C-alpha cells in the first residue's frame, strides 16, 4: 500500500468528532462511557501526482516546488493543450471522494502565497465570501478584528474602522486584482454588491432599496460617518488588472446586472 512520500505515513487523515457531536451522542441515549470516549474517523488524504508519488495534502503544501516533485524531482507541471497555461494534474482522493486528473496548481499557488503573506488570509476569505454571495460571511469578516488569528499573522494595528476599509478596498494579486465588488459581480450576487456599496461608496443613500437598510440593520452594519476633510472611500473607482471597473465587468457579464449598467450604481458619475 502506498504511503506519503514525505512522512512515510498511511494516506489517511484522522478526524476527531467535535465536542458538540459528542454531546449529541450522549443526549441521544448512548452510554456515558461511549459518549466520553474520543470519537475519531479516518478519511482518505491522498494526492497522487503524475510522477507516481503520493502525498498528504498538507505534506505536499509544506514541501512542494511548482515544477518538480519534492520527493523524486520529476517534472510535475505541464502545459494545458486547451488553455496554453501551466497546470499540475493529479488524482485526488479525500473526504469529498475521488477526482481524476484535476489541476491543483491554483490551490498550490494560493497556499504558497498565504504562507509568505499570512496577513492576507482574512482579506482573501473576505473576497471568497463576496464571490459566493455569502452576506453574513462578509459581515462576519468585517466585524472580526482579527484577535483570534494565529500569532504569526501580522495585525494591522490601524483600528477597527481602518482595518475594515482595508478589507473593503483589498484587491487580489492572484486574481486579476479583483476587489470585493468585482468578486460580487463575478459571482452574480446583487445582495453582496448592495452591502459593499452601502459600506464603501458615495452612492447616495436615496438610491438604496429599503430592504438593504433593513438587512444592514439586522446584521449590525452601516455606512460610517466620514470626518470633515477625509476623502470618502468609493470602491466603484477600483480597477482590476485589465483596467475594468466593477461596472465594466457587469456589462460583460449581463444577466442579473442588465438593469444595473448605466444607472450609476457600479460607476462613479
Automatic annotation (TrEMBL):
Domain of life: Eukaryota
Region (Disordered): 144-164
Descriptive protein name: Uncharacterized protein
Amino acid at each position: 500500500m502506498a504511503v506519503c512520500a514525505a512522512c512515510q505515513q498511511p494516506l489517511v487523515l484522522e478526524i476527531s468528532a467535535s465536542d458538540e457531536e459528542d454531546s449529541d451522542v450522549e443526549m441521544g441515549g448512548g452510554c456515558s462511557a461511549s459518549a466520553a470516549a474520543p470519537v475519531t474517523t479516518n478519511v482518505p488524504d491522498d494526492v497522487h501526482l503524475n510522477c507516481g508519488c503520493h502525498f498528504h495534502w498538507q505534506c505536499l503544501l509544506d514541501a512542494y516546488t511548482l515544477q518538480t516533485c519534492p520527493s523524486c524531482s520529476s517534472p510535475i507541471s505541464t502545459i494545458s493543450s486547451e488553455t496554453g497555461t501551466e497546470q499540475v494534474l493529479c488524482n485526488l482522493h479525500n473526504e469529498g471522494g475521488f477526482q481524476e486528473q484535476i489541476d491543483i496548481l491554483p490551490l498550490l499557488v494560493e497556499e504558497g502565497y498565504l504562507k509568505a503573506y499570512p496577513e492576507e488570509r482574512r482579506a482573501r476569505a473576505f473576497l471568497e465570501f463576496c464571490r459566493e454571495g455569502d452576506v453574513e460571511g462578509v459581515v462576519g469578516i468585517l466585524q472580526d478584528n482579527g484577535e483570534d488569528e494565529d500569532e504569526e499573522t501580522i495585525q494591522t494595528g490601524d483600528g477597527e474602522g481602518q482595518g475594515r476599509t482595508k478589507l473593503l478596498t483589498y484587491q487580489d494579486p492572484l486574481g486579476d486584482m479583483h476587489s470585493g465588488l468585482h468578486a460580487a459581480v463575478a459571482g452574480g450576487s446583487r445582495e453582496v454588491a448592495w452591502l459593499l456599496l452601502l459600506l464603501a461608496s458615495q452612492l447616495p443613500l436615496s438610491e438604496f432599496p429599503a430592504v438593504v437598510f433593513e438587512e444592514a440593520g439586522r446584521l449590525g452594519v452601516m455606512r460610517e460617518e466620514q470626518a470633515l476633510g477625509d476623502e470618502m472611500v468609493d470602491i466603484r473607482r477600483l480597477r482590476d488588472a485589465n483596467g475594468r471597473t466593477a461596472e465594466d465587468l457587469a456589462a460583460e457579464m449581463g444577466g442579473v446586472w442588465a438593469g444595473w449598467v448605466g444607472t450609476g450604481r457600479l460607476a462613479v458619475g
